[in-house]
Design a protein that fits this description.
single chain; 6-stranded mixed beta sheet; 201 residues
Length: 201
């Protein structure tokens, strides 16, 4: 499976505010780690059960990460770099991941991990290495390390997060979605494997 990671800390690169709300106030952060029953309120998780299962896994006790934001889509607009798949359709998703505050109160360990660029870079590198060991398939994954601003009592704490992109390719929407679903499950299993290996994203 194709996989890569990037570091995106430039002035024009995306950042995440956590918790977040959209400007219209229609959408907002949902804490699925502590309130898993709220998964039913995530529209994308209902429309795409594969994404719902991934969110459930990422926010389970087996995972050292939790999710902050997500989306999924299908498109026929593929880049020149994606010509290698000889496909007409791409089914894609992104999920923003942050270090988990498993104990319900932000412990110093989690706080330091959220601030640690090296921990995020190591996670991205190790996840990509694991995913690349999977057999060749019509799918790809990318992990982007970006800057995050965590709203805490008494102010804002600057740290990092990872955006995980997973894409599946095919000659119709159904095949592209099937490839995406398999890839999403594979990446989820890899993250659980990394979580079991030790603390840290």
């Amino acid at each position: 499976m194709d996989a890569d990671f990037s570091i995106e800390l430039g002035r024009e690169d995306p950042v995440l505010d956590l918790p977040w709300t959209d400007p219209a106030g229609r959408l907002a952060y949902v804490d699925l780690k502590r309130r898993p029953e709220l998964l039913a309120a995530i529209e994308e998780a209902q429309r795409f059960p594969e994404l719902g299962k991934f969110l459930r896994t990422m926010n389970s006790a087996r995972s050292t990460v939790e999710t902050a934001k997500c989306d999924a889509w299908v498109t026929t607009e593929l880049s020149a770099e994606e010509d290698i798949y000889h496909a007409s359709h791409k089914f894609g998703s992104y999920v923003d991941l942050v270090f988990s505050d498993i104990d319900g109160g932000l412990a110093l360990r989690e706080l330091s991990l959220r601030r640690s660029f090296s921990a995020h870079e190591r996670f991205a590198r190790e996840l990509v290495d694991l995913v690349r060991r999977a057999p060749d398939m019509m799918s790809a994954a990318e992990v982007c390390v970006r800057r995050c601003y965590f709203a805490e009592e008494g102010g804002v704490d600057e740290g990092f997060y990872c955006t995980l992109y997973v894409s599946g390719y095919g000659n119709d929407e159904a095949r592209a979605r099937q490839a995406w679903g398999v890839a999403l499950k594979l990446v989820g299993n890899a993250i659980v494997q990394l979580s079991a290996a030790g603390p840290g994203l």
